[in-house]
Design brief:
By secondary structure, the protein is mainly beta. It has one domain. It is built from 1 helix and 12 strands. The chain starts with 5 loop residues before the first helix and ends with a strand.
Length: 186
């Protein structure tokens, strides 16, 4: 039986695990952040974010993703979301973005609460197939009130991904931070 997790990371040369490598970090400028000139030397990509926006007309804010500056209607997405007492599911087809989730912390969220999110972008250099993503978002406000969501997205384009733009409906606040990682291996 394989050893997983922290213990596995301490066993030198015994277990082959995919390697993560930091490619870039970014602090958003207004409503978006773009990672460009992405190296084509990895198998998959991962974006990690801690964010909050200034939007003040809803209890939560959406997070969106585009590839290579493509604004055409060839994206789709679906996700499920829950807050401990209710759940919902949403999907979209032929959209101009991948909608990751509507649970980013915003101006109506408890002060200093940021959402955490992780997107995996699979086979981003493969020019023989469309690109797929999976994501997880979460935030927790005072008193245990919060939301978690799981989703996936699809970009109907066979081009290798060379840039990723992430954006929200409101401006990102100070201390929002994004990181791009390359994943080697299967």
């Amino acid at each position: 039986m394989p050893i997983l997790g922290i213990i596995a990371s301490q066993v030198p040369g015994k277990i082959a695990v995919p390697a993560f490598e930091s490619i870039a970090t970014a602090t958003p400028n207004g409503t978006s952040v773009t990672f460009s000139s992405i190296p084509q030397t990895f198998t998959h990509l991962q974006v990690r974010a801690v964010s909050r926006t200034t939007r003040n007309d809803a209890s939560v804010d959406g997070m969106y993703m585009r590839f290579n500056g493509d604004t055409g209607g060839n994206y789709s997405y679906h996700w499920v979301q829950g807050n401990g007492s209710s759940a919902s599911a949403v999907n979209g087809t032929n959209t101009t973005v991948i909608t990751a989730a509507f649970n980013g912390a915003d101006a109506q969220t408890t002060a200093n609460v940021f959402s955490s999110s992780v997107w995996d972008i699979l086979d981003y250099t493969n020019t023989n197939k469309y690109k797929s993503t999976k994501n997880i978002f979460a935030y927790n406000a005072d008193g245990g009130v919060g939301t978690v969501s799981f989703g996936s997205g699809h970009w109907r384009n066979t081009a290798a991904i060379t840039s990723i733009t992430l954006f929200a409906e409101g401006n990102f606040v100070a201390n929002s931070h994004f990181g791009l990682y390359g994943i080697k291996g299967a």
